[in-house]
Amino acid sequence: MDFYTNVCRSRDKILAIGYKNGKKQKLSVSYRPNHYIPSKKKSSPYKALDGRPLEVVNLNSMAGAKKFKEKYQKIDNFEVHGYDRYVYTYISDKFPGKIEFDPQQIKIATLDIECESENGFPEPSQAIEKVNAISIKPFGQPTVVFGLGEWETESDVVYVNCENEQELLMNFMKYWRQQWFDIITGWNVDAFDMTYLCNRFDRLFGEDTHKKLSPWGMSSTREFLQNGYQKTQIFGLSGVNVIDYMELYKRSTFHNQESYKLDYIAHYELGKQKLDYSEYGSLHTLYKNNYAKYLEYNVRDVVLVEELEDKLGFLDLTQAMAYDAKCNYIDTFGMVKYWETIIYNFLKDQGVQTPPQK
């Protein structure tokens, strides 16, 4: 593998996705991490932070390494050195030196969904309302739209007309699994679009159906406070990098905006706006009375996000930061893992192993 795009762990396996000679690779491998203990030898290629020599302890599995560390770090005056975030030690071991990556090979798409909203704004954690349109735009390519009615499209759109919502979602799933994008982005895509889709798939087709959106068939969920007060459910699809462009924009700019709605930011950055439908009063009325314009509204959102990236390059920056640190793209959003990994690799290059955890 020349470079990775996502590395995660499942029990005692490392799951890695990346590229070799321009072709995508998907690897499930056993990994044998090392830990280090004080050595009686006067010199060693491995040393502690204070310069004392260490000797390597080869463990035969990640589970074995964890048990070894947990067992011996409880013993007084027995030190176990070495980083225990094994996904990142794997990346460091398999990709020594500077990681040379080709951004042209990394498949990125921006996503936006629309739902019925007759009863108000649809709650993504419940996903009660019908999904009636999905636009997904591979960067540099035409937008692919899944809808529920006839539509004469423009040349830069591929339209898939579906009989009903179930067919729409299944066609979208088929396309998703054919493409296996490396990065999915969009405006509030993490907290709304992906969460809604995952919950809607499970509601209509059975629990855990959404796991088919992961190349490894695995997912996790967590909750966080969006905007500091709104409890929000987030799905993590193993092997898929979902990078919310709204959050990326907030993190990467150095001034506060009056609003972080896509309409406002697109106007501020690009001099463009979302499609205006004010003559219809509400998005639901637009859907009922002018479905063609409703789809155009959906398409405009994904196009605007790609145009923002074309101007700002924040996804390019995210990739560069991740490969410099030897971590996953999403790790650049937080400070702890990101800086821990940078420090770990810096020390490792000097032959120094991370100290025992207190």
Features:
single chain; 358 residues; alpha+beta; DNA Polymerase, Chain A, domain 1; Nucleotidyltransferase, domain 5; 2 domains; 6-stranded mixed sheet; 3-stranded antiparallel sheet; 35% helix; DNA-directed DNA polymerase activity; nucleic acid binding; DNA-directed DNA polymerase family B exonuclease domain-containing protein
What is the string of SSEs from the N terminus onward?
EEEEEEHHEEEEHEHEEEHHHHHH
Domain count: 2
**Unreliable residue runs:** none
Averaged pLDDT: 96
Organism: marine metagenome
Domain DNA-directed DNA polymerase family B exonuclease: 83-265
GO biological process, one term: DNA-templated DNA replication
GO molecular function: DNA-directed DNA polymerase activity; nucleic acid binding
3D structure, described in words:
- This protein is an alpha+beta fold and 358 residues long.
- The chain has two domains: 116 residues, DNA Polymerase, chain B, domain 1 (DNA Polymerase, Chain A, domain 1, 2-Layer Sandwich); 209 residues, Ribonuclease H-like superfamily/Ribonuclease H (Nucleotidyltransferase, domain 5, 2-Layer Sandwich).
- The protein is 35% helix and 24% strand.
- It is built from ten helices and 14 strands.
- It has a six-stranded mixed sheet with strand order 10-9-8-7-11-14, with helices on both faces. A three-stranded antiparallel sheet has the order 1-2-3, with helices on one face.
- α6 packs across α8.
- The protein is elongated.
- The protein starts with a strand and ends in a 9-residue tail after the last helix.
- The model has no long low-confidence stretch (mean pLDDT 96).
- This is DNA-directed DNA polymerase family B exonuclease domain-containing protein.
- GO terms for molecular function: DNA-directed DNA polymerase activity; nucleic acid binding.
- It comes from marine metagenome.
